[in-house]
Each structure stands twice: as structure tokens, then as C-alpha cells.
Amino acid sequence: MAFIKRNANGSRRSPFAAVLVIAAGLALTGGGYAATTAAVASTQPVSAAASAAQTEEGRKLFLANCASCHGKAAEGSTVAPSLIGVGAASVDFQVGTGRMPGQSSGPQLEKKPVQFTEEQTAALAAYVASLAPGPATPTEAMVATNGDSTRGGELFRINCAMCHNAVGAGGALTQGKFAPALKGVTEKHIYEAMVTGPQNMPVFNDANLTPQDKKDIITYLKFVESNPSAGGYELANLGPVVEGLFTWIFILGFIIAITIWLGAKSN
Fold first, then answer.
1. Domain count for the chain
2. So what's the pLDDT on residue 37?
3. What are the counts of helices (DSSP H) followed by strands (DSSP E) for the chain?
């Protein structure tokens, strides 16, 4: 005969009551966590689901071209970083711009002719993305140049101009490094650079710059690229220091030379 405990008021309390309460609590907690996780995941940019065949093709390409430096499992080595968790966006940027595979050591990797087709690059990105979660390649809607170029220019000057110049003309950094010019860079690669922070560039995640902020910046850069300077020839957009130096050396020098020549002629 089972023993049934009684409460202080004399009512019966089943020995299974505590088990039912704990089970209900676990169910509610787990359900709430799952719902929250799904809601957060739905706000993140996701690439098209990679097929098993594409991922396998990427693995073969990785072993043939990348494993000698990054390790057979992308765990990294003394000469190359780990790729676990870098996401598809990082691979698409580095390989899609020709910076990878790297051919020589130096202060930073430079752009070279792209060595892989778009399909091969996508396969490599799919394989690395399958190793661990990371930033995905952006969708076409995320990089469309229909944002606010005025607001994008303000954001670019606040966050990027100290290295890339106010109009993306690039600039020199320390120890032989440099911020590349952004003219001719595709919208997708600009977005991927912001979310992955290649080499000397900081990472601008959605907490720093929202997806709309990134779209506005891309819109501004493409506006500057496609519209000539309203003030005339801009000397490659190198800024007021270079323009001032040009004025002092060439224009004022020419005026002085003409003055000397006229003075000598009159004598």
C-alpha cells in the first residue's frame, strides 16, 4: 500500500506532485528558450542552404588548396589562423577578391587575380560555414544601393574615413599597412568586409552598424564612385593636404616663375 502524505490542512499530496512540477518547469523553460532562439535566428542574415554535394566539393578544394596552411580541419597553424567560426562571408571575401590563397608574406595580403570560379568560391564558403556558425554572405536585398546616401556618408566619415579617406580613396597605415581604395569593390565584398573585419579592419557587427546602416554606407560609396566631383578635378580624392601641397608647389611655383621671367624680360 502506497503512503500518501497529507498537508497541514489535511488534504492529500501525491508523491508524484514534485515530479510533475519539475517536469512542467523544464518544459516551459525549454520551450521558452527554443522560441527565443528561433526568433533571434530569424533576424540573422542567412545564405541559401548549402547542399551536401556543395559542402563536399568545398572540402576537397580546401584540402587541395588551403589545408597546407590552415590545417586539414581548418584548425589553423603557426602560419595561418583557424577558420572555425569565421563563416561563409569571410571566405567569400578573401577568396572572391583574390587575397586568398596567399602567395607571399608581408604586412598584409593584397588583391590578386581571383584563382577560383564563383561556384568554387561558394563551395569553399559552404564547407567552412559547415564547421561552425559564423557571418553568412549577404543577400541581394542587404547590399542593394537604395539606401540613404546622405546618412551613409555621415556614417562612413564617422567610422571609416580615418583609414579609407572621406570618399573611400584609401590611405596609408603604420608598419607598411594600408587601407585599400574602395572604388570598384563590389557591394557584397564591402558588406562582408564590415562584418568580418579582414586583416587590420575592425569588425562592425549589427550592434555597431545595423544592416540598414551598412546599406546606407554602400549606397554612399557607390554614389561617390558614379558621380564626378562637383568642384572639378579632385586629385584622386587624396584630401586637402595633397591639394594644398599641389597648390603651393605647382601653381604658386608657376606664378613665381612667370614673375621672375617678366622681371628679367623688362630689364
1. 2
2. 47
3. 11, 4
